[in-house]
Amino acid sequence: MCEAHFTVAALYCFARFPDFEAYQAPLTELCDQNGIKGTLLLAAEGLNGTVAGTQSGITALIAFIEAIPALREQNIELKYSTASQMPFNRMKVRLKKEIVTMGVEGIDPLQSVGAYVQPEEWNALIDDENTILIDTRNDYEYAIGTFKGAIDPKTKTFREFPQWVEDHRGDLEGKKIAMFCTGGIRCEKATAFAVF
Fold first, then answer.
1. In this structure, what are the phi and psi dihedrals at residue 158, rounded to the nearest 5 degrees?
2. Domain Rhodanese, which positions (predicted)?
3. Is the confidence at residue 29, as pLDDT, over 60?
4. What burial letters (b/e) apply to 71-90, b meaning 16+ CB within 10 Å?
């Protein structure tokens, strides 16, 4: 059995983050000092990334992120796993227009977003014959596996999702819709865009 040596943190946070550029250098330095590798994306709409390092290094990074004034008030979505080998080759802290690229101006999950469904309520929701289930992941992710009856938008990138919604808006309006993705970030933006 492989012993886990690295802590992996997948995280995102939608926030009003106007001074995001000022955090590129300090985050890069902190990660370098702690041997953390992976990617962090910073944008005016928040932060997104997956990083790996020692438990103490990741703890220090998360404490730094949680102390950033623009992010402190928000709920940072954070998931941990472990790895026996370092899964990333280098550390990148990138400045972007969006933390998950949809390419539509003005989408703000802090202002308008779908209802969150607790895990224990999910099966009842998707078992309801009046629910339309949409897989917001890309086509290669859908091919790996999905929920029974889920609609495949056949998108190669998330940037294609808004056009799919517009093409099917008439079929979707007024219906109960459930969306899912890999870590939650695409669902937040997809529901913010597709609020009917």
1. -65, -25
2. 127-194
3. yes
4. beebebeeeeeeeeeeebee
Active site residue 181: yes
The pair of structure tokens assigned to 71 is: 């992010």
Q: Please give the model's pTM, rounded to 2 decimal places.
A: 0.87
When pLDDT is averaged across residues 90-94 and rounded to a whole number, the result is: 98
Structure token digits, residue 179: 């969306």
What is the number of helices (H) and of strands (E) in the chain?
7, 7
pLDDT tens profile 167-192 = 998 888 888 899 998 888 888 899 88
Helix residue ranges, H only, the chain: 24-33, 55-67, 69-72, 119-127, 139-144, 161-172, 185-194
Alpha-carbon span 49 to 40, nearest angstrom:
4
Q: Strands 77-83 and 6-14: what pairing?
A: antiparallel
CB 58 within 8 A of CB 4: no
Name the average pLDDT for the chain: 92
The residue count of the chain comes to: 196
Q: Helix, strand or coil for residue 8?
A: strand
Q: Which of 2, 13, 31, 181 is catalytic?
A: 181
